[in-house]
Specification:
alpha+beta, Rossmann fold, six-stranded antiparallel sheet, three-stranded mixed sheet, 13 strands, 43% helix, 18% strand
């Protein structure tokens, strides 16, 4: 019980991972403005969890980054966000207002891919959904009831790659590394119009005297953005391939399902007589299936449905044979058993069955069984190995 309690409230993981969990419930946090006009968030279920936002920072030199180059005002004002547990600082990062301060983002991770013949590699910005920058970005906007329908979120997803996991990130970075030489001229060629547009944006947003060549800043932003676009293209290509595969699987499953159900309906008439009796039906999905006889879940009907399904598979596929044990027949009514034996007799492939007794069957069914019998087992020395394995030893 104690372990279940710990798991329910994420007490069995690190403080870092507990933060990841509780940040997904913004309704459990309260916003507070301190006396020195700083913003704080306190977790109501455990006030040891506190988030503090401070700024703007005056000592940051870089005010133009590719992770928000689609914004109209692309000048970055830096704030710092800190996560505490009690008096212990657990994590910090930078918090940036976007869309004229109507929303905020935590700066995405900056990563490098060490491709050949490029000093220091090529770089870009990304979020990983199960890491704190992405989780905090969602939290800080959810707790303030910011709508994701605005332009700001479209800009975020345009300027940054968003991965589900670290494993996905590693997969695409390897693709970039493997393909870079083949695509660098087509995917990473600089566009003078884009550079000019970024240069104009930087001027309009205000350099405020920061050093550096504005055109060089714009070119570096464009380089990173081209890598973002290429990775997004790879992601879309994979999604399109997965969607095409899913569509093909669904089409094939629908055809198999139709063939099986049509065949089982025909076989059901052979076994049950009038078509008014419901045949067994199968529904096939990519990860599951459902097999039933509608409005009849009786044992005899279930075993009859299994026999008909096996017979349909034998007729429709390259399956060479099947084996049915005596258990399948015991709960099926006599007339249907007779018809099943007759159905077996019409098959050109091999069918192996065991049956306990045939005296209750029709003369025709008994005749079919006798003509095809290869082994009879009974007590009195006619067991498979000459004796019954479960008899007690005599003293």
């Amino acid at each position: 019980m104690e372990l279940l309690w710990e798991k329910r409230f994420h007490l069995d993981v690190s403080i870092y991972d507990r933060y990841k969990a509780i940040l997904t419930t913004p309704q459990d946090w309260e916003q507070i403005i301190t006396e020195d006009n700083h913003e704080c968030f306190i977790y109501l279920r455990d006030p040891n969890f506190v988030i503090k936002v401070e700024g703007p920072l005056e000592n940051k030199n870089s005010h133009f980054e590719s992770f928000m180059m689609s914004e109209f005002n692309i000048r970055i004002e830096w704030f710092i966000i800190k996560l505490f547990y009690g008096n212990n600082e657990i994590y910090y990062n930078y918090d940036i207002p976007v869309d004229d301060s109507s929303a905020e983002i935590i700066i995405p991770d900056h990563h490098f891919i060490n491709v050949n013949h490029v000093l220091n590699g090529i770089s870009y910005h990304c979020y990983i959904k199960d890491e704190l920058p992405y989780i905090l970005t969602n939290f800080i906007n959810d707790v303030r009831n910011v709508s994701y329908a605005g332009y700001w979120w479209n800009y975020v997803t345009t300027d940054n790659v968003i991965y589900e996991t670290k494993k996905e990130k590693a997969y695409y970075e390897k693709l970039v590394f493997d393909n870079y030489e083949k695509v660098k001229s087509s995917e990473f060629a600089s566009d003078p119009e884009t550079v000019q547009s970024l240069t104009s944006k930087i001027k309009l947003s205000g350099t405020r005297g920061e050093g550096g060549d504005i055109t060089l800043i714009a070119k570096e932003m464009e380089k990173e953005h081209l890598l973002v676009k290429y990775i997004k293209k790879l992601q879309q290509d994979k999604k399109d391939q997965q969607d095409a595969l899913k569509a093909t699987i669904n089409t094939e499953l629908a055809e198999v399902q139709h063939s099986l159900n049509t065949k089982m309906a025909s076989l059901n008439e052979q076994v049950c007589g009038p078509s008014s009796f419901q045949p067994p039906r199968i529904e096939l999905k990519p990860a599951r299936y459902n097999f039933e006889t509608i409005n009849d879940q009786g044992t005899g009907t279930s075993f009859k449905g299994l026999i008909i399904f096996d017979q349909a598979c034998l007729d429709l596929t390259r399956l060479p044979c099947f084996v049915h044990d005596s258990l399948l027949f015991s709960n099926i009514e006599i007339d249907r058993r007779n018809r099943i034996i007759k159905m077996y007799a019409q098959e050109t492939k091999q069918i192996f069955i065991s049956i306990d007794s045939i005296e209750v069957l029709s003369e025709k069914a008994q005749e079919i069984i006798r003509e095809n019998t290869v082994l009879i087992l009974e007590r009195g020395g006619k067991e498979l190995f000459g004796r019954s394995w479960n008899e007690q030893a005599t003293k």
